[in-house]
Every structure is written in C-alpha cells, then in structure tokens.
Amino acid sequence: MCVFCKIISGDIPAHKVYEDENFLAFLDIKPINPGHTLIIPKNHYANLSEIPENELSNMILIVKKVAVLLTKKLNFTDYTISENNGPLAGQSVAHFHFHIIPRFENDILTDWDHKERRVGEKEYKPGEAEEIIKKILA
Ligand code: 5GP
Ligand code: ZN
C-alpha cells in the first residue's frame, strides 16, 4: 500500500483539512510554506494520465474549494497549485495529488519562479516549434 493509501486507511496519521467520500486533503508533512496542503483521490492512481476524467473534474472543484478555504482561514491571497508526474518532474509519492502552496514575498519558491521566467525567455530556433507541432498534430 502506498503512503497516501495508508493515510486514507488511517494507518498513518495526517492533519486533515477536508474529507468527503472520494477525496482527502491534508497538510504536507514538509511544508514549503505553512498551510501547504495536498489533495488526493481516495482511489489510487499513479498520476494525471491514470485518473479518469470524471474523477479529475470532481477533484479540481475540491481543489478550488480547499484553496479558497485556506486563503480565508489562514489569511493569505496568493498560492501555487502544482502537480508532478514522474520522478523527473519531482514526483516522490506515486499517488496522484495536487499541492496547494500558500505564497509569500521572497519565499523559497521565489527563486524557482525567477528561474522559470529566465527559461521562458529562451526562444525556439527557426523551424523547431513547427517540428514539435508536426509531432503533436500527427
Ligand atoms: P511530490 O513530491 O510527489 O509532488 O509530493 C509528495 C509530497 O508528499 C511531498 O511534499 C512530501 O512532503 C509529502 N509527504 C510524503 N510523505 C508524507 C506523509 O507521510 N504525510 C504527509 N502529510 N505528507 C507526506
Ligand atoms: Zn495510493
């Protein structure tokens, strides 16, 4: 059983933020910022590719509900939603989950944001984007 399935079954304790028949939200054990929350489906799916569409659509509404709840109760305005697929993307628990990460000025993700912006300034070489589009649309 994976670590998040153990949280669902109660074998591992967690600080629960929200729970219904199909989904559970709880505090991340190593928060990027206080209030960092994970949302998981109670059914085990490894990643975004595996979760069925109907469950995902229900889940994203819970993500919104929990995010808004956190902003009000913990009194912050900005947050990052993230979701990693596979180890190269930084996924360490292979049970599909969204992160809701409250954001504050100069927090530890700020460097990452700036790095992303620098990466975003890179341009495609001539013809490179067309090659990629050709593969995607083929
Ligand atoms: P990932 O790296 O897969 O996107 O995110 C997994 C997250 O799960 C990490 O941020 C990690 O801190 C959190 N995590 C791992 N094990 C536990 C646990 O036993 N309890 C809780 N609450 N969070 C966990
Ligand atoms: Zn699981």
Provide a descriptive summary of the structure in words.
- The structure is a single chain.
- With 138 residues, the chain is an alpha+beta fold.
- The protein has a single domain, classed as HIT-like (HIT family, subunit A, 2-Layer Sandwich), CATH 3.30.428.10.
- The protein contains four helices and five strands.
- Strands 1-2-3-5-4 form a five-stranded antiparallel sheet, covered by helices on one side.
- The longest helix has 22 residues, at 53-74.
- The radius of gyration is 17 Å and the shape is globular.
- The protein starts with a helix and ends with a helix.
- The mean pLDDT is 94.
- It binds guanosine-5'-monophosphate and zinc ion.
- Guanosine-5'-monophosphate (5GP) is lined by residues 3, 12, 14, 26-30, 38, 84, 90-93.
How are the elements arranged and paired?
Layout: H1 3-9, E1 16-19, E2 23-27, E3 37-41, H2 53-74, E4 79-82, E5 98-102, H3 110-120, H4 128-137
Antiparallel strand pairs: 1-2, 2-3, 3-5, 4-5
Bound molecules: guanosine-5'-monophosphate and zinc ion (ZN).
